[in-house]
Design a protein that fits this description.
globular
């Protein structure tokens, strides 16, 4: 499954300016309603977090977390997930639980299945 992503810098800027933010210990979630029914996502991992290897590792983790949550998310939203400095040293499951909690707090979950995908079996 190919995720539809935000690509242009202007799209990120608009979302930061017009969207609502939900702040966690490891990530910040920005959410903005769309006119159509598309779901788009962007990931931001700043240089302060570390070398490219560390940033790419965090980005891969965030993409996988979003991919697993994708079927449960409402249509018609743009989402940007921004990694905070502390995200570098946190285990995957802790990061995943926080992203799920922020998505839930933002009201983006359509249905709650039997727990998050990373908690099943």
């Amino acid at each position: 499954m190919q995720l539809e992503t935000l690509g242009k810098n202007q799209e990120f800027k608009n979302l930061y300016r017009r969207g609502r933010s939900y702040v966690g210990k490891y990530v910040v979630l920005y959410v903005c309603r769309r006119q159509d029914e598309r779901k788009r996502v962007g990931f931001t991992v700043g240089r302060k977090i570390g070398a490219a290897v560390a940033r790419n590792r965090i980005r891969r983790r965030l993409k996988e977390i979003y991919r697993l949550l994708y079927p449960q998310l409402q249509e018609g939203y743009d989402v940007v997930i921004v990694a905070r400095m502390r995200a570098r040293d946190v285990p995957y499951r802790v990061l995943a639980d926080e992203v799920e909690a922020l998505v839930h707090k933002a009201g983006l979950l359509v249905k709650e299945e039997a727990g998050a995908p990373w908690r099943r079996g």
